[in-house]
Structure formats: C-alpha cells, structure tokens
Amino acid sequence: MGDGTNDAPALKEADIGLLMGDQGTDVAKECSDIVIVDNNFASVVAVLWWGRWIYNNIQKFIQLQLTANIAALVINFVTAISSRNVPLTASQLLWVNLIMYTSGALALAAEKPTEDLMEKDPVGKNEPLITKDMWRNLIVQAQMAALLTLQFKGMSISEVGEKLKE
C-alpha cells in the first residue's frame, strides 16, 4: 500500500498493490493494481464481498447449466440407443438453453449477497472454477433428472412403448 514514487517498487512487487487516494503520483498509479479513490479502506471490503458474491453466482449458474445439458444429453442418448429416435431436437435444446439462461440469470441476480461469503476462505487464482463438490452435485443431479424423466416419460418418448402396445 502506498501513494508516492518511493512506494512504486513495493507496489509492483506486491501480490496486489493498493494505492490510497487519487492524489498518488503517476508512477505509483501505474505500479498499483487497485486505486482506492475515496481514501476509505472499507471500500476494499465491500469490493471483496461483491466479488465473492459474483464468483459464487457464476459457479451456481455453471452448475445449473451443466446439469440441464448433461441430463438432456443422457435422455437423448438413451432414447436414441433404445429406439433410434431423438426426443429433443436441436431447436428444442436451443429453446431449453435460452429459457435456462434467462431464468437462471434472473434468479441469481435477485439473490442477495450474504455475510457468510466473507467467512469462507479466499479462492486462489489457480483453483478450478468447477470444484470437486460441484462435479459431484452436477453428476448426481443430472443423473436423477435423466432417470426420473426416463422413468415417468420413457414410454412416451421412445418407440418401445408403442411396440409394447401392439
């Protein structure tokens, strides 16, 4: 943290160089990563809080999208193998994705950030965006969605049900 020319080497060497105020020298501004314009260090806490909220929502959105797409892939694959018919066409999948993107984004935007976000450990820059827990949840949720769909609608989306009726 600094504001003068003599602080420039330290600002450049630091993981995150902070410059307090806009009165700092141009050299210090160029070497720093973050410039706190209002001279209030509490602004950094607010930025971190909102940043963690955005990162958390991005993870939730990715998990939602991947779950829906994997479930659709499994349903199409199983039905195509068993009946040589594809229940969801490309245009239907595009509509599903459009609705999922819109509703998912609106739902996450309406969610308010919570205080417990600051209790979590920070995420390193080399950490994966999709964590092991997310992969586990994603696989279980997609599997359940696909299995329930095939259980309750399998006969109507495949030719097997029509062959059994004959």
UniProtKB/TrEMBL annotation:
Keyword terms of this UniProt record: Magnesium, Membrane, Metal-binding, Transmembrane, Transmembrane helix
Record-level Gene Ontology MF annotations: ATP binding; ATP hydrolysis activity; metal ion binding; P-type calcium transporter activity
Gene3D superfamilies: Calcium-transporting ATPase, transmembrane domain, HAD superfamily/HAD-like
Upper classification of the organism: Eukaryota, Viridiplantae, Streptophyta, Embryophyta, Tracheophyta
Ranges where the Cation-transporting P-type ATPase C-terminal domain occurs: 86-150
Name of this chain's protein: Cation-transporting P-type ATPase C-terminal domain-containing protein
Subcellular location(s) per record: Membrane
GO CC field: plasma membrane
Primary location: membrane
